[in-house]
Amino acid sequence: MLKSVPASLLAVLLLVACGKTPTRPDPGHDNPARSESAAQTELPGPNDNLNAVAWTQTAVERELIYRQTYRAAGFQLDRALADADWEALARNERKGERPATLKPAVILDIDETVLDNSPYQARLVVNGNSYNEFTWSEWCREENAAGLPGALEFTRLAASKGVTVFYLSNRASDLGEATLANLRKLGFPVATDREVFLGLGTFVPGCEQNGSDKSCRRELIARDYRVLMQFGDQLGDFIDVMSNSPEARAEAVAPYLDWVGERWFVLPNPTYGHWESALFNNDWSQSAEVRREAKLRALKTGQ
């Protein structure tokens, strides 16, 4: 026999059945001292990024992954410096002089590699918004992104050994001043004898950049430096992928698997990236529902 359903629960069930989001209960609703007119806070609607952002901001495992990655890189640094032929650039990106004749450098992506932008992602989830260049630029200009675990210690170690630290980012070039200010506030090494922030739009003489690909900017660094290591949260931080599909991504990185954890150091980012758009043919003009269907089809259930 079914038990009677409390009226309050029935109201919530009816709201859900009608496709409406129930409001968060007001903890002071039954408190006579609290104004009865206090507004209830509406819960944001469903968001595909909720779990990813929650994991990014709360899982201690994420912090441990960053620490172990940068610590492992630190253990490799002296070995890299001692080997005159050590090179972390994809084989088709080295042009000109042999690495042995050049000064040492490391290349780090910025977002989700050195700086933590999860508060921006959290704002999007809470406010029911999507990424756009204006709000992203506003966030960058706040200069309040925290450093990610292990990144400060590694970059300081590298700089102390005479290694130039380059920050190669797809932040727009006009965000360079704010980005470097953010890095300096946190104590990251920022060389003053040359430009070490290479944002999207950096002009590279003799090299034609394809969209947001980073190969031209890596080539620019490599003209004067021996690149010992690269760090990033996207495959494009290490190598250009000509066709962004899951199969093409796996094929592009296959020749360099032995470099992972030695010369290439990959960090986790479940909140955004080309891995996502590869699942729906890179077509952001499709509705969220169509994109979600494509991602569901990509799941492997073992059946």
Work out the number of β strands.
7
Strand order of the largest sheet: 5-4-1-6-7
Tell me which oligomeric state these chains represent. single chain
Query: Element order, helices and strands?
Result: HHHEEHHEHEHEHEHEHH
Q: How much strand content do the residues show?
A: 5-15%
Low-confidence stretches: 1-39
The general outline is: globular
Structural class: alpha/beta
Number of helices: 11
Distance between the termini: 37 Å
Biggest sheet features:
5 strands, parallel
Mean pLDDT: 88
Helix share of residues?
A: 25-40%
- Tell me the Rg in angstroms: 23 Å
Give your account of this protein's structure.
With 303 residues, this protein is an alpha/beta fold. Helix content is 38%, strand content 11%. The chain is built from eleven helices and seven strands. The chain has helices at residues 7-17, 50-58, 60-82, 118-127, 133-142, 151-160, 176-186, 215-222, 246-253, 274-277, 288-298, and strands spanning 103-108, 115-116, 146-147, 164-172, 197-200, 225-232, 264-266. The strands form two sheets. A five-stranded parallel sheet has the order 5-4-1-6-7, with helices on both faces. Strand 6 (225-232), helix 9 and strand 7 form a beta-alpha-beta unit. Helix 3 (60-82) packs parallel to helix 6. The longest helix is centred in the first third of the chain and has 23 residues, at 60-82. The model is unreliable at 1-39 (pLDDT under 50).
